[in-house]
Amino acid sequence: MKKPIVVAALLLMLFIVSACGPSKASLAETESAIQSTSQAQGTNTARVQQTSVAETQQFEDTQAAATAEAVTATWEFNVTQTSEQATRQANAQNTQAARTQEAIAQ
C-alpha cells in the first residue's frame, strides 16, 4: 500500500522540479535581460564620458576666462601705474623747472 503513495509522491516531486527548472524560454529571457543590461551599461558609460568631456570643457572655459581677467587686471594695473608714474615725473620736472626759473630770476 505504501509503494503507490511513494511512487505518486516521487512523480509529483519530479513534475514540480521539471516545471520549476529552467526552460528554454526562461534562458532566452535571461539572455535578453543580460543583453539589455549590457546595452544600458554601455549607454551609461557613454553618458558619463560625455558628461566628463562637457565638465572638462566647462572647466577649461572657466580657466581661460579667469586667465583673461587676470591678464586684463594686470594690464590695467600696469597702465595705471605707468600713468601715475609719468604724472609724478612730469610734476617733479615742472617743479624743478619752476625752481630753476625762480633761482635765475633772483
Can you walk through the features of this model?
It contains two helices and no strands. The chain is mainly alpha-helical and 106 residues long. It is 95% helix and 0% strand. The mean pLDDT is 80. The radius of gyration is 45 Å and the shape is rod-shaped. The N and C termini lie far apart (152 Å). The protein has a domain of 31 residues.
Notable characteristics:
single chain; 106 residues; mainly alpha; 2 helices; 95% helix; rod-shaped
Termini gap? 152 Å
Low-confidence blocks of residues: none
Radius of gyration: 45 Å
Alpha-beta content class = mainly alpha
The largest sheet is: none
Q: What is the string of helix and strand elements?
A: HH
Shape field: rod-shaped
Proportion of helical residues: over 70%
Average pLDDT, to the nearest integer? 80
Please state roughly what percent of the residues sit in beta strands, choosing from under 5%, 5-15%, 15-25%, 25-35%, 35-45% or over 45%.
under 5%
Q: Helical segment tally?
A: 2
Counting DSSP E segments of at least 2 residues, the number of strands comes to 0
List the SSEs and their pairings.
Elements: H1 2-20, H2 24-105
What's the short version?
The protein has 106 residues and is an all-alpha fold. The protein is 95% helix and 0% strand.
